Amino acid sequence: MPSMPRSLRLTAILALCLGLAACGGRNPAGGPSAEAVAVNRYLWTASLDVLDFLPVQNVDPFTGVITTGYGTPPGGSQPYRAVIHVSDPALDARALSVALATPAGPVARDTQIAVENAILSRARQLRIADGY
Question: Element (H or E) spanning 17, and its range?
Fold first, then answer.
């Protein structure tokens, strides 16, 4: 079987490379790949603002999870740690989940709700400051 001319081989290789590059993790609309989870930037930033007294141990913007170590709030005596999950790009209470714990165990539901409300309020403030 005769071999292909050099120019045709180079064209075929180039076409193959461009075809593979087109599969590089972007969806047809040009956004992030389907594996990436979008999180609301206001909820994300507000969570870090409100709980700034807690040392951040791990952040994963792809899954929307922020994990902290123990820290004591200003004027408080009880140390807390938190796991925050921002699960949606919407600025919505359903997109936010906060789990607080002390060394003795989980905190009361009212305390968790108060922290979630503080984060939601701060997120709205940040959004308004951006002119939305």
Answer: helix 6-21
Instruction: Going residue by residue through the chain, which has 132 residues, state the pLDDT in tens, using 9 for 90 and above.
Output: 455 454 444 344 434 433 433 444 444 444 444 455 688 999 999 999 999 999 999 999 889 999 999 999 999 999 999 999 999 999 999 999 999 999 999 999 999 999 999 999 999 999 999 988
Q: Which of 106, 109, 86 is nearest to 40 (CA)?
A: 86
**Fold annotation for 41-129:** Alpha-D-Glucose-1,6-Bisphosphate; Chain A, domain 4 (3.30.530)
**How far is Cα 132 from Cα 130, in angstroms, rounded to an integer?**
6
pTM for the full predicted model = 0.71
